[in-house]
Amino acid sequence: MAEPFLIGDAMTGGYGGADILHDCTIAVEKGQIAVIVGPNGAGKSTAMKAVFGMLKLRLGAVRLEGEDISALTPQARVAKGMGFVPQTSNIFPSMTVEENLEMGAFIRRDDIAATMEQVYTLFPILRDKRGQAAGELSGGQRQQVAVGRALMTQPKVLMLDEPTAGVSPIVMDELFDRIIEIARTGISILMVEQNARQALEIADKGYVLVQGANRYTDTGAALLADPDVRKSFLGG
Amino acid sequence: MTARGFGLFALMGLVLLGVGALQSWQLAITILNMSLISAIMALGVNMQWGYAGLFNVGVMGFTAIGGLAVVLVAQPPVPEAWAAGGMGALLGLLLGVASILAAVVVYKRLPKGRLRALAMVAVLVAGYFITSAVFGPATQAIEAVNPASEGYLGGLGLPVVLAWPVGALFAGGVAWMVGKVSLGLRSDYLAIATLGISEIVIAVLKFEGWMSRGVNNVTGIDRPVVRPVDLQTESWLQALAETLGWEVQQTASVVSGLGYAALFTLVLGLLIWLSERAWTSPWGRMMRAIRDNEVSARAMGKDVTQRHLAVFILGSAVCGLAGAMMVSMDGQLTPGSYEPLRYTFLIWVMVIVGGSGNNWGAVLGGFVVWFLWVQVEPAGRWFMELATAGMADGSDLKDHLLGSASYMRLLTMGVALLLMLRFAPRGLIPER
Amino acid sequence: MEFLNALVTLSNFMLVPALAYGSQLALGALGITLIYSILRFAHFAHGDTMALGTAAVIGGTFFLQGQGIGIAPLPTALLAVPFGVLVMVGYLLAADRLVYRYYRRVRAKPMIFVMASLGVMFVTNGITRLFMGVGETRFEDGERFVFSVREFRAFTGLAEGLALRNAQAITIVTALIVMIVLFWFLTRTRAGKSMRAYSDNEDLALLSGINPERVVTITWVITAILLVLAGTLYGLDKGFRAFNYFQLLLPMFAAAILGGLGSPIGAIVGAYVVAFAEMGVTFAWRRVAGYLLPEGFEPSGMVQLLPVDYKFAVTFMILVIVLLFRPTGIFKGRVL
After folding, report:
1. Do B271 and B329 lie in a common domain?
2. Chains with ≥3 CB–CB distances under 8 Å to B
3. Distance (Å, rounded) from C-alpha C129 to C-alpha B380?
4. How far is it, in rounded angstroms, from Cα C217 to Cα C195?
5. What CATH number corresponds to the domain at position A141?
6. How far is the C-alpha of B314 from the C-alpha of B308, rounded, in Å?
7. Pseudo-torsion of CA B77, B83, B84, B86, nearest 10°?
8. Is residue B431 domain-resident?
9. Domain for residue B318, yes or no?
10. Which run of H or E residues covers position A159?
């Protein structure tokens, strides 16, 4: 099998103290959606942060398009084409929606108008609120700003840390629809989700982590169909 | 205390003895006494910073209010001034306090809204006019009584040592008010609030002549130790002077100075003993726990703000005590001489240099920094003379540089503070 | 007529001076609030660095005067401002590299930064006094008045006069220009927006590729410009004395907190509130009241709420009221 587009290969490490990840592998193919699920404290967010370079790996490597990027800082990975949306404080609250998007494109020196137009097409509500301070928006709208900001660098991979945390079910469905749309444009999506069932429904690939290690890895549909996974992680 | 601490203190003692032998014993005693007072101030600041992480930038105000206590307690009352307006002034003060209390009552009782704000303003404005109608004429009458030497109400004529705890009480009272307002908010708000209150205390001392004679200074305050002039006539002292081969006048001032030193050491010793006990007590452990992790201390149900308030009051009271001691050593209150760099920020240098969070460190810092403060000035002059030796005599630049030598010590203190903070942030004697 | 006279005397002795003072405070408070929002500490060396910047401008002024260069009727000092800015940019950046940067790297607590700024304050204070001593230095030259009391009276025929001093007019105009430029910079330029982004959310700014050291450098440069201007204008208006600049610290902080720490617009509003409150409470209202009240009701006293010596008490009361009732300030700055 060919090397996946982005892969965190056999990652072992933690925040300085004891290891949190144990030989954990996460990968995503071009234009596909990969979802990391698992119980609380399973190291889901940690695995994603490791892929993004926010913690030091003791063993293992991260490769993007076959290139080993394990030694790069998160900022350098952004320049390489990775976009990251943190779970909390993922917007500039006192700046307008438009300024938030501009800041997302800070490292770009070319014309960003077209990309901004794409973001507005994807999230029409942001166009209406472009002059409003992002901190004054509703929870779901803020998440749209956060995703929009990350898209402004024209990333090849978009990483989302629990994008639907704290939003209503309707908004959640809507967000998932948008995420599918983003994936259709060729951007790979790697996302951590608390709402495992809904997330696996849209996932091409699913990773069930337990205690920092891979427990089940399969396509989203297969995991949903697996009685063990259903019983233990999806509430029957 | 560790061997290192003992060594540093011994070294400091040797240096002071050296000053006595090489420069003069009077100077050595003066430095020693002021060092003792500085050490007490540093101890007070260290309680707040070292135990609780509170940043008090109003040390000057608390020492000055302690100094005022000396005047109010130890000076003889001025009966003519009391007759002229004493009751009026007191009544005025009471009215002022009453109107503030009335405003507070209005605030607490009335429902929120425009009515409440209006009522509060009305109460305050009315209170202000009533108060000043009583207070203004009374204080003017007081200040008119024999203005060259009196013009104020005087004090209670009690023994001067009594003024020391009273000074602590005064400073503690002011600290309570400041702490009530600014604790529990951002940590730098306390700093700014204390900076403000210390300026106000000095303004009050300078301006309220009926109470403190303002910039006219109160001099000739009773001293707790026999004055050198009175000592000179004692036969035992004259004999002592003969044995040492010193002049009588010099011997008298050294002996008198040693008397202060003994008294101050007693107070300092008592304070250190109390602080050390507090440090190792459950209370001290709790304070450090709060300092190191406020969030978890709060989560454990500790009322952090209340604890901070208590330690803030205590530390400020110690500063007030030191301020009272200083005024009674000088025998005068000179409101014009209080300067924040000298009375607030220098104390901070002492705490940081000495070792914040360690009582012995703060005391040592008081000694070392005060010694530097006194000695850097002649050193700066010497340095400037060296630097300008090549210049023509009488040139403007040379005169200017020589005249500015005294500011070298501000520079030196700043550099010392920055270097300590950067390379030895735990100070000369670190926290255990 | 009575009303006009009251208004004119009020303007002459209170409104115009307060407007000038408020403008000076505003420039200072803007610096404090900027440093606060980017470097996240209370900059206690602000008053003293202001004094040093003014000292540099005074040095430049004296040099230019010695060369016979001037821009009369405007004061020569304005010509020396760029020199002062240059000196202070160098000084503040040196202070940042030598002192603050280390604490940023080890992510020290805000209080350690404040303590370091005390050290910088001491050093700056010493340097300023080495050059300027402790006495007062006047360096205003050129025309003294835009129009004087006599000219105003002759022109309007009113009994009361209004003078507009050159220093006041320059202060108000300059402050206005600086504020407009600053807001344009913060809301329209890439560098300004990156500063706001960094202030809003440091980690996300980092993720977006904003270089924190660059933001910090820009902040010090702007602060240098603001404080040299504030100090020079204050000195032109009231004369230079190092200690007075230290004492400006309290009203500047009060202004920044009142407006909401971290909010530039708040710092400006706060500064004018503080200035007008200080001047209004310590102003003798007798002449104004004499014109406005009916015959026979003229006040006998000065109608001064507090003596001028207590202007700090006014500032402090404002601070206390803010802390008690709205610790975030008018424009919702950050708390904790």
Report:
1. yes
2. C
3. 14
4. 10
5. 3.40.50.300
6. 10
7. 60
8. no
9. yes
10. strand A157-161
Question: In the complex, which subunits touch C with 3 or more CB pairs below 8 angstroms?
Answer: A, B
Half-sphere exposure of A57 (CA within 13 A, CB side): 26
What's the CATH number of domain C2-244, 3.30.160, 1.10.3470, 1.25.40, 1.10.12?
A: 1.10.3470
| Residue A150 lies in domain | 33-42+73-205+214-233
Domain layout of chain C by residue ranges? 2-244
Number of residues that this document lists for chain B: 432
Judged by CB atoms within 8 Å, which residues 55-114 of A form the interface with C?
A: 74-75, 78-79, 84, 86, 89-95, 99, 102-104, 106-107
Closest CA to B87 of B126, B150, B141: B141
Around B298, how many Cα atoms within 13 Å sit in the side-chain half-sphere? 8
Q: Which domain holds residue B14?
A: 3-77+154-423
Beta bridge partners of A83: A158
Determine whether the interchain pair C127/B411 forms a contact, defined as Cβ–Cβ distance below 8 Å.
yes
Percentages helix, strand, coil for chain C (3-state, rounded to 5) are 75, 5, 25
Hey, which residues does A217 pair with through a beta bridge? Answer: A207
**Pairwise CA distance, residues C79 & C69, whole Å:** 9
C-alpha distance from C97 to closest chain A C-alpha (Å): 23
Domain count for chain B: 2
Distances from the Cα of C336 to the Cα of B32, B54, C110, angstroms? 42, 14, 11
Cβ(B57)–Cβ(B103) below 8 Å: no
pLDDT digits (tens, 9 = 90+) for C141-168: 888 888 888 888 888 888 888 889 989 9
Residues B144, B268: one domain? no
Task: Quote the CA–CA distance of B418 and B349 in Å, as a whole number.
Answer: 9
The domain boundary, picked from B99, B128, B153, lies at B153
For the segment A52-89, what is each residue's pLDDT rounded down to a tens digit? 988 888 888 999 998 999 999 888 898 889 999 998 88
Q: Are residues B401 and B277 in the same domain?
A: yes
Is A179 part of any domain? yes
Taking CA atoms, what residue in C is nearest to A105? C208
DSSP string, C128-163: HHHHH-SS-B----S-SEEE-HHHHHHHH--SS---
Distance from CA of A92 to the nearest CA of C (A): 5
**Residue A64 located in a structural domain:** no
Asked whether B and A share 3 or more beta-carbon pairs under 8 angstroms, the answer is no
* A93 domain residue, yes or no: yes
Q: Do residues C91 and B168 touch, judged by C-beta distance below 8 A?
A: no
Q: Are residues B339 and B399 in the same domain?
A: yes
Rg (chain B; Cα; Å):
24
**Where is the domain boundary, B119, B153, B187?**
B153
CA dist., res. B52 & res. B284, Å (int): 10
Instruction: Evaluate whether residue B344 is within a structural domain.
Output: yes
- Going residue by residue through chain A (236 aa), what tens digit of pLDDT does each one get? 568 899 988 899 888 778 889 999 999 999 899 999 988 888 888 999 999 988 888 888 999 998 999 999 888 898 889 999 998 889 999 899 999 999 999 988 888 999 999 999 999 999 999 999 999 998 889 999 999 999 998 999 999 999 888 888 888 888 999 999 999 999 999 999 888 888 899 999 999 998 888 888 888 889 988 888 888 877 76
- Does residue C73 have a cis peptide bond before it, meaning omega lies within 30 degrees of 0? yes
Residues B332 and B220 sit within 8 Å (Cβ to Cβ) = yes
Query: Does residue A22 sit within a domain?
Result: no
Angle at the Cα of A100 from the Cα atoms of A94 and A104, rounded to 5 degrees: 140
Per the DSSP assignment, residues forming a β-bridge with A27 are A7
Q: Single out the residue of B348, B373, B345, B358 nearest to residue B428, CA to CA.
A: B358
Please give, rounded to a whole number of angstroms, the shortest distance from the CA of C250 to a CA of chain B: 6
Domains held by chain A: number: 1
Residue A8 φ/ψ, nearest 5 degrees: -95, 105
